Amino acid sequence: MAQSRNNSSRGGAPRGGGKPGGGARGPQGRGKGSKAGTKGGFKSGPKTGPKSGPGKPKASAGQKGPQKPRAFGGVDKYERRASAIKEHGPHRRRRPKNPPVDRLEAHDENGVRLQKLMAQAGVASRRVCEEMILDGRVEVDGQIVNELGVRVDPALQSVHVDGMRIQTDEKLVYYSFNKPAGVVSTMEDPDGRRCVSDFLDVRKHERVFHVGRLDVETEGLLLLTNDGELTNRLTHPSYEVPKTYLVQVHGPVEKGVGKQMREGIKLEDGIAKVDSFKLIDSKPGHVLIEVVLHTGRNRIVRRMFDAVGHPVERLARTQVGPIAIGDQRQGVVRKLSHTEVGTLLASVGM
After folding, report:
1. What is the pLDDT of residue 338?
2. In which residue ranges is the amino acid composition biased (Gly residues) (predicted)?
3. Which residues are annotated as catalytic?
4. How far are the Cα atoms of 124, 204, 210, 328, 334 from residue 201, in angstroms, in the given order?
């Protein structure tokens, strides 16, 4: 009896702990992919025998019980994330890269993006315009804008780049006309003489008017535009826009004539003087002189040279403010570039 009880206590009970389906673990229990203690109900203890599968290290002699899995390197990232969620909630709003531009007075939410407007005006590519804005080189209504996202109204606001205004109103146009001699400085002439409109193509040129006048026999630069404010400033004496002329007179010319014209010549409508007097060329019987003056009185250059005893043989205006006639052919109407328009507007404080 005692021997039977000893056999029962030692090995009579199955290894499976008496669970249904238990029994002595056979060779199939060690096969690849078997899961001890799940489907078969086996309960395995610590393994001290040979490796049961590839990649499992052999337990050391002093090791007791199963070891905890090694922490992987990215655990700190998840701990920080959990801490941030606990502190700020699961849907924390991202901080915007730039503060909102609504606080700027120059911003018009219904307008056009500033860099797009600059690119359309011919300043540079849109990417370069963005860099110019970030560098603080752009002003809108006198306020420096160095943030992207600002919108402006091109019809109501002025934009300056490096101190030069850019024309943002596409309805305004600016032309340079090299007027030949014998052309009247009007759009229509009741006597049927050639006038400015005869050189304009109605299919290409908008309705414009001339800035100032040149007498019939004077040739050279005549500006054409539909910008009324610019016209008023270019012709108003208070802005003192310089005008350059090439004058051909009968020579030789005495040395004191230049000094006399710079100091002032008395005419029937007051004193007139030139800002600059320069001898350009001299040929037998003819002298070419360049004069610069800012007054716009009628036939002022011809009257001044008549007063000093050298009547004008040929007269041409070569420059108005920053706009020069250059090598433009006579009778040609040329559209001013964006840079020329900007310098012209800046010359009269626009």
Report:
1. 83
2. 13-31
3. 215
4. 29, 5, 15, 18, 12
